[in-house]
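Question (not urgent): is this output format expected?
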Amino acid sequence: MDFQGDIGLIGLAVMGENLVMNLAGHHYQVAVFNRTVDKVEKFVNGRGKTPSIAGCRSLPELVRALKRPRRVMMMVRAGTAVDELIDQLLPLLEPGDVVIDGGNSHYTDTRRRTRKVEAAGLLYVGAGISGGELGALNGPSIMPGGSAAAWPLLREMFQAIAAQLPDDLPCCDWIGPDGAGHYVKMVHNGIEYADMQLIAETYEVLRKMGKLTPEAIAGVFGEWNRGALNSYLLEITAEILRKVDPVTEKPLIDVILDCAGQKGTGRWTADSALELGVPLSGIIEAVQARSLSDDKARREMSARLLPGPALRPAAVSDQWLAQVRSALYVAKIAVYAQGFQLLKRAAKEFGWPLDYGRIAGLWRGGCIIRAIFLNEITAAYRRNPELDNLLLDEFFRRAAAEGQEAWRRTAAAAALSGVAAPVLSATLNWYDGLRTAESAANLIQAQRDYFGAHTYERTDAPRGKFFHTVWSEAGGGTVSGSYDA
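Got this back:
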């Protein structure tokens, strides 16, 4: 084959195909391969029929079709398929070549694979890619991390195909070593879960308590989308609520079953937060809400058997709608504050030099959570790169002060009416816990010392000095150091 490709791409599912078209549209030569070879033929003889794209019938043929140093990008299902593909590629490649995983791999797998590929003399990159199929085609947000020596070989190409911001910044930049790129993408997806759940909870409050129709709520969301809440997710939600089902002529939303799926990245974010000891209530509740939604049969049975309060309809007015809007906005701030707190803890744990302002900038375009709101997060971290928590920035502290009353009233009204709003409530509880200088955790520590002799610290002694009390005659003087409860 005389074709000299700039990059080889393996995996012609929706994301892979669209990335190939994006690359070719930016004048890059792309060699493609798919395990099902018929798919290669169909693609290069159809949508991908252009001199810039060459179909390959095997991995050796793909490798031979690439310029040195070779750049090979995998767009395959996360898990064992990636490991198997790496094992097949390593004997075909040479030192200095780059292997890129553009799927949603778990960051721990990416850390392990980086070590393995680097040990073979090659370079490895785990690139988180967000934006769905349209983003892949028109410009996604790309979050690459791994072997730092690979970035100069990828920078121009990746930044060319990424979404471009009005200030000429591409939504792609180097994140950090080993699994940093996939970790940041994972947290992006966790925030996405919570953002979607908050919009759904707001919809339910407007629908059940405000008795508004989907069309009316679409108008409300459309209006909100012209202000501080402007975002891709709110924009598409307004479009969704206007859609009419051609079969029943009802709003399409009313004939979609209320069972929300998930692919795992939200759970991974929650797992990481629990492992690192970071409170992440908004994202965790969003994940659990999806799990509860999927338990449709049990919910239908429980709806018949379990008592709840009578619905308290809201007096819909501009003031009430403004209250609900403010509640959504401040809860959204809390979700992002939690997400960035997790990034800070992971950076410390894994030795990643993360640039939080730049990460927020990468999410301003191309990705699913793109929103005008991210401009303020970027600005906050530019003002103070060491900012401990987003809510401590002057802009967000003021927003929380101005919006907390609406947040409390909306969460309370939903609870009194029996309308589930788990993320709205959980983020409010987190906010109140965060601003509590003296909490009831001292009682928990006393309980732990009582039943397990786990010791405690005292308010009148230096931090790090531990004490034990013999709480009952049956207790002894031995303290616990072997387990935690």
